[in-house]
Write a structure and sequence with these properties.
Layout (H helix, E strand, L loop, with lengths): L3 H12 L3 H15 L2 H5 L2 E9 L7 E2 L7 H7 L3 E10 L2 E9 L1 H5 L7 E7 L5 E8 L7 H11 L1 H7 L11 H15 L7
Parallel strand pairs: 1-6
Antiparallel strand pairs: 1-2, 3-4, 4-5, 5-6
Helix pairs in contact: 6-7
């Protein structure tokens, strides 16, 4: 047992020195700081992202193409990653995310696995976001309220039954969620 602990510490320590992991962490740090131009230098021009499963073509990622970027910035998204691993150009980590949208809906998201596929020069080419469980929230309560009070707005915010994060929808979501929390007599979220 005494030999296992130092070996485990060495494995954990060395994982952070892996150049593949360092590339992904540098990319994440630049994105978190809002330095999109510098972050883009870690991406291939045709980088793509998938949600839940890597099926179909995925969506363009980075270089001004991603729909969720404004949403994440506007709602002050924060993600922490643990359990980093890398092997043969594939990096993965377990993520824990929080943001104002989740807080406004009393949302408890599950952890998720993020996987990045890198080219031989450590540029991110593909990304997969996989939830690792089910979330709980007041989204159904909000949707029932909005369907009565603001049916047209709700239809525009969720045109396919899913959130459309484009345009000014993040700002409109926040305004509706605050109105709903007041109507439902829920505590204010600061």
């Amino acid at each position: 047992m005494n030999r296992v602990v130092p070996l485990l510490a060495l494995v954990v320590c060395c994982a952070s020195f892996d150049p593949q992991i360092q590339s992904v962490q540098a990319f994440r740090a630049l994105r978190d700081r809002g330095d999109d131009a510098a972050a883009a230098s870690y991406l291939t021009p045709d980088s793509r992202i998938w949600f839940t499963a890597k099926k179909g073509e995925g969506s363009p990622f980075g270089h001004g193409h991603e729909a969720w970027h404004h949403w994440d910035l506007y709602f002050h998204g924060r993600t922490t990653f643990t359990h980093w691993s890398a092997h043969d150009g594939v990096v993965s980590a377990i993520g824990h995310e929080t943001n104002d949208y989740y807080r406004l809906l009393d949302w408890k998201p599950p952890p998720f696995r993020m996987t990045w596929w890198l080219t031989s020069d450590h540029k991110i080419h593909e990304i997969l976001f996989e939830p690792l469980g089910k979330s709980t929230s007041r989204l159904d309560q909000f949707r029932a309220w909005a369907a009565v009070v603001h049916p047209g707005e709700l239809a525009d915010l969720m045109p396919t039954g899913e959130i459309d994060p484009t345009g000014d929808r993040a700002e409109r979501w926040r305004a509706l969620l605050i109105e709903w929390r007041l109507a439902a007599r829920l505590p204010a979220v600061r």
